[in-house]
Amino acid sequence: MDAQAWEKVDALIDANQNKTIKDYFAEDPDRAKKFSLEAAGWFLDYSKNRIDAATMKALVKLAEKANLKAEIEKMFTGRKINATEGRAVLHTALRNMDRNAKVMVDGRNVIPGVRKVLDAMGDFSDSVRRGTWRGFTGRRIKYVVNIGIGGSDLGPVMANIALTPYAKRNMKFFFVSNVDSTHLAETLRQVKAAETLFIVASKTFTTQETMSNAEAAKDWLVRELGDRKAVAKHFVAVSTAKDEVAAFGIDVKNMFGFWDWVGGRYSLPSAIGLSLMIAIGRGNYRRFLRGYYRMDRHFRTARLERNMPVVMALLGILYSNGYGAETYCILPYDQYLSRFPAYCQQMDMESNGKGVTKDGERVTYSTGPIEWGEPGTNGQHSFYQLIHQGTHLIPCDFIGCSKTHNPIGDLHDKLMANLFAQTEALAFGKTADECRKEGVPEKLVPFKTFDGNRPTNTLLCDELTPETLGSLIALYEHKVFTQGVIWNIYSFDQWGVQLGKVLAKGVLKDLVAKKPSGRHDSSTNQLIARYRAAVGR
Ligand code: F6P
Question: For 423-440, what is the mean pLDDT?
Answer without folding.
Answer: 97
